[in-house]
Amino acid sequence: MTPTTVIELGRHAMEITLLISAPLFIAALATGLVVSIFQAATSINEATLSFVPKLLVTFFTLLFAGPWMISVMTSYIRQLFESIPGLID
User: Fold this and answer.
1) What is the distance between the alpha carbons of residues 71 and 74, in angstroms, rounded to a whole number?
2) What pTM does this model have?
3) Contact, 84 vs 1, CB < 8 A?
């Protein structure tokens, strides 16, 4: 296994990680932004007001995007395991 192969495997793993985590991060970011704007407009400074909506939106996003996330991860792992014989020199 060459250093180039190791770097390529690591790069692809990072891409898959970012791809899988993006829906959850984007949903939490958008929810936090909306709640922050609401808190600024109403002058409500309650910590749980920002935590609970983010938790709920992240949960529902995971329910919605979970099957897709599992299929992407499964196909990546299957591809990785199938490429093991070719990686051994």
Assistant:
1) 5
2) 0.79
3) no
Residue 88 is given by DSSP the state -
Q: What is the 3-state secondary structure (H, E, C) of 35-46?
A: HHHHHHHHCCCC
Domain of 71 in residue numbering reads as: 3-87
- The gap between the terminal CA atoms of the chain, to the nearest Å, is 6
What is the block-wise mean pLDDT of the chain (89 residues), using blocks of 10 residues? Answer: 89 96 96 92 84 94 96 96 85
> Whose structure tokens read 């070719």?
86
Number of domains in the chain: 1
- Report whether 66 contacts 29 (CB < 8 A): no
